[in-house]
């Protein structure tokens, strides 16, 4: 425990009251059990009841989201092609590899098809296991093949039920984390209830099932729970080793299932770095966590056939830099306040410089450019110069990558979550500042202890980590809406822990000169119970209404398109079109694609930009030449993109292409002075006029209200 004074356990009432809540046998009514036997029995009973509640809530959450998914789509009643179309954009691409493994003649043949894939990107053979995080699909397909369940359960249900089952793991992990932090399972109950009632902002699993984050976040939550336990004081060596093993396994599974793992763990590493610099965490445990992050990522790198994007990650460079800098500056935590501040500034600068140098060196050696679009996006997003880069603007114009909308806070406030979170965050931030200042100044003198005896401020290592974790991920969520699910789930944990924490209420009451041990215990249990009652009465009717609302999947145009492709084109046909639609084409028809939504490859990004010239102002000859260079047999044009109205001017796909090509955008509004009118009309509009210059290259073979399919002529 980090504190501004050393506790004198067993001497006086103050020391006894200052013990952590989990070490005191207290009933919910505030009465302390007498005798060691009574205390042990109460602990066993409490853990048993708490465990049953955790598992029950996890299973209920799993059933809840599964029911919402069924009610929203009528999934059990729709056709197979409609089920597959419901896996939109990249979700369909990932699921297609599960389907491919299921349909393969053998497991070996299925794996060979993934390692030597020539249907995901035409005229190229790529290793899917290297490029994408699809080991979960491989594992699940093998499990489905070897288990005797084929007669009872369709492959798609085995897949979606696994994802919904992981939601149970997710909720249990959040519950346990909150319980560990506060010392009472009531806190876990409140965290789980908040997670469920704020479902719109805590998860999107029911409508984006195969998305990588839905696989990864449960393991991330397990890792945080294990770290929370690891940071407890007085762990036995066996407990510590087992906990480190749990952290490693959770870190490895999180890294294996999501391509953005390195960025999330970099934020986690920054939290550890900050707390270690402020002497708020044990250095030995922090070192172990750095090593676990590196080793977990390197193991994933090996499984992904030495994926260069992992080797060139900032996380590996940062963690190695921290370990090197710490070895150089051995006396970092000695000296007075000014001395230590000077050393810390030098340490931070050294780590930053080493990180950039190591990362630059690795990327130079590996010729790595896979993640450059992310840094271009970040540079443009935070105002370090405007950009005409097509890939960066594609992200900037998507709502998911914009700032967190303000109405998010009103929704979170309606469940009292945001109010509780703000209260706990303020108190613990003040406590953290005081403790950090005391640690840096080395003010542990007896005189100071005596002067501050009444207002002693403490912050346990696990609570300190939770605080910095939530602040850093909160900043990420505020800047990028898609990442809010990493923050809001932990917000439930953090707020519930604070409301059920002896330390938080003790600090509050001492500041108000109202502190007594009995009063703290009463508030610690009554406030969460009142909050739970409020949530139950306010949101239970809404949840019941939501579960009774029945809808049905309806997308006849896409269904008609997929059925036509399966019936009227050869199995070897190559299709070009938008990334999102082509993922569905691969899943529903098995045809070869020119491009797809998994964007973490420079060659694919350049290829996608070229394919998208079908929506730009280019000549029919240019477009035909581009498409044929990728082996295209058919091109699908979508009216929803060609005549897009979803985005404002400047963010429509056709506008991004015009700007990237140096052409003036359509419609009223300003254009940059160096943009010029195009010599050609927009291809997707002009091709529908059946002019000779177009019909010599393209023949329309399918049309409905949404899609137009053209077959490319094969000129000698």
From TrEMBL:
<feature type="transmembrane region" description="Helical">
    <location>
        <begin position="41"/>
        <end position="66"/>
    </location>
</feature>
<dbReference type="InterPro" id="IPR047465">
    <property type="entry name" value="Dpy19L3"/>
</dbReference>
<dbReference type="GO" id="GO:0000030">
    <property type="term" value="F:mannosyltransferase activity"/>
</dbReference>
<keyword id="KW-1133">Transmembrane helix</keyword>
<feature type="region of interest" description="Disordered">
    <location>
        <begin position="1"/>
        <end position="30"/>
    </location>
</feature>
<comment type="similarity">
    <text>Belongs to the dpy-19 family.</text>
</comment>
<dbReference type="GO" id="GO:0005637">
    <property type="term" value="C:nuclear inner membrane"/>
</dbReference>
<keyword id="KW-0812">Transmembrane</keyword>
<keyword id="KW-0472">Membrane</keyword>
<feature type="transmembrane region" description="Helical">
    <location>
        <begin position="312"/>
        <end position="329"/>
    </location>
</feature>
<protein>
    <submittedName>
        <fullName>D19L3 mannosyltransferase</fullName>
    </submittedName>
</protein>
<keyword id="KW-0808">Transferase</keyword>
<feature type="transmembrane region" description="Helical">
    <location>
        <begin position="264"/>
        <end position="281"/>
    </location>
</feature>
<feature type="transmembrane region" description="Helical">
    <location>
        <begin position="179"/>
        <end position="197"/>
    </location>
</feature>
<feature type="transmembrane region" description="Helical">
    <location>
        <begin position="525"/>
        <end position="543"/>
    </location>
</feature>
<dbReference type="InterPro" id="IPR018732">
    <property type="entry name" value="Dpy-19/Dpy-19-like"/>
</dbReference>
<feature type="transmembrane region" description="Helical">
    <location>
        <begin position="242"/>
        <end position="258"/>
    </location>
</feature>
<feature type="compositionally biased region" description="Basic residues">
    <location>
        <begin position="1"/>
        <end position="10"/>
    </location>
</feature>
<feature type="transmembrane region" description="Helical">
    <location>
        <begin position="217"/>
        <end position="235"/>
    </location>
</feature>
<feature type="transmembrane region" description="Helical">
    <location>
        <begin position="341"/>
        <end position="362"/>
    </location>
</feature>
<keyword id="KW-0328">Glycosyltransferase</keyword>
<dbReference type="Pfam" id="PF10034">
    <property type="entry name" value="Dpy19"/>
</dbReference>
<feature type="transmembrane region" description="Helical">
    <location>
        <begin position="416"/>
        <end position="441"/>
    </location>
</feature>
């Amino acid at each position: 425990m980090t504190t501004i004074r050393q506790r004198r356990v067993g001497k006086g009432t103050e020391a006894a009251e200052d013990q952590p809540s989990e070490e005191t046998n207290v009933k919910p009514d505030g009465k302390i059990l007498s005798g060691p036997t009574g205390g042990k029995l109460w602990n066993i009973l409490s853990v048993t009841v708490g465990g049953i509640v955790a598992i029950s809530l996890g299973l209920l959450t799993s059933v809840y989201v599964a029911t919402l998914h069924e009610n929203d789509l009528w999934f059990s009643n729709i056709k197979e092609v409609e089920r597959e179309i419901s896996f939109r954009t990249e979700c369909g691409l990932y699921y297609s590899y599960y389907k491919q493994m299921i349909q393969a003649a053998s497991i070996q043949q299925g794996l060979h098809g993934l390692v030597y894939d020539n249907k995901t990107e035409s005229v190229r053979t790529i290793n899917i296991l290297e490029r994408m995080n699809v080991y979960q699909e491989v594992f699940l397909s093998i499990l489905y093949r070897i288990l005797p369940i084929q007669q009872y359960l369709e492959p798609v249900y085995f897949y979606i039920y696994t994802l919904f089952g992981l939601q149970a793991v997710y909720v249990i992990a959040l519950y346990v984390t909150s319980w560990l932090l506060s010392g009472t399972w009531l806190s876990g109950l409140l965290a789980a209830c908040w997670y469920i009632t704020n479902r719109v902002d805590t998860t999107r699993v029911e409508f984006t099932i195969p998305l990588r984050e839905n696989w990864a976040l449960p393991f991330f939550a397990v890792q945080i729970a294990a770290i929370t336990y690891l940071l407890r004081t007085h762990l036995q060596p066996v407990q510590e080793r087992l906990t480190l093993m749990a952290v490693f396994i959770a870190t490895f599974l999180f890294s294996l299932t999501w391509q953005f793992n390195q960025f999330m763990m970099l934020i986690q590493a920054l939290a550890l770095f900050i707390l270690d610099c402020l002497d708020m965490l044990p250095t030995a445990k922090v070192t172990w966590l750095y090593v676990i992050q590196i080793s977990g990522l390197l193991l994933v790198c090996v499984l992904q056939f030495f994926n260069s994007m992992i080797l060139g990650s900032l996380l590996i460079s940062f963690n190695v830099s921290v370990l090197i800098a710490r070895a150089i500056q051995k006396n970092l935590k000695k000296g007075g306040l000014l001395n230590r501040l000077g050393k810390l500034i030098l340490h931070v600068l050294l780590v930053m410089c080493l990180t950039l140098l190591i990362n630059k060196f690795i990327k130079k050696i590996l010729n790595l450019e896979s993640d450059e679009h992310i840094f271009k996006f970040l540079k443009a997003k935070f105002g370090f110069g405007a950009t005409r880069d097509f890939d960066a603007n594609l992200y900037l114009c998507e709502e998911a990558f914009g700032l967190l909308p303000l109405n998010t806070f009103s929704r979170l406030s309606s469940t009292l979550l945001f109010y509780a979170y703000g209260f706990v965050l303020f108190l613990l931030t003040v406590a953290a500042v005081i403790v950090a200042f005391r640690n840096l100044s080395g003010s542990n003198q007896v005189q100071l202890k005596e002067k501050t005896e009444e207002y002693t401020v403490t912050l346990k290592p696990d609570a300190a980590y939770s605080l910095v974790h939530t602040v850093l991920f909160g900043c990420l969520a505020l800047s990028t809406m898609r990442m809010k699910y990493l923050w809001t789930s932990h917000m439930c944990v953090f707020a519930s822990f604070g409301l059920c924490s002896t330390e938080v209420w003790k600090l509050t009451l001492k500041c108000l000169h109202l502190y007594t041990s009995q009063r703290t215990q009463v508030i610690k249990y009554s406030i969460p119970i009142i909050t739970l009652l409020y949530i139950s009465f306010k949101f239970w009717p809404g949840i019941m209404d939501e579960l009774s609302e029945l809808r049905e999947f309806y997308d006849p145009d896409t269904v008609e398109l997929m059925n036509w492709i399966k019936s009227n084109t050869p199995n070897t046909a190559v299709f070009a079109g938008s990334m999102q639609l082509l993922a569905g084409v691969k899943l529903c028809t098995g045809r070869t694609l020119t491009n797809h939504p998994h964007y973490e490859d420079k060659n694919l990004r350049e290829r996608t930009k070229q394919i998208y010239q079908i929506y730009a102002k280019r000549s029919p000859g240019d477009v035909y030449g581009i498409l044929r260079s990728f082996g295209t047999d058919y091109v699908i044009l979508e009216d929803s993109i060609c005549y897009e109205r979803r985005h404002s001017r400047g963010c429509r796909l056709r506008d991004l292409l015009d700007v990237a090509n140096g052409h003036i955008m359509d419609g009223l509004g300003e254009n940059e002075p160096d943009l010029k009118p195009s010599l050609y009309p927009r291809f997707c509009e002009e091709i529908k006029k059946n002019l000779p210059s177009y019909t010599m290259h393209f023949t329309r073979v399918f049309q409905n209200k949404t899609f137009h399919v053209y077959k490319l002529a094969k000129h000698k």
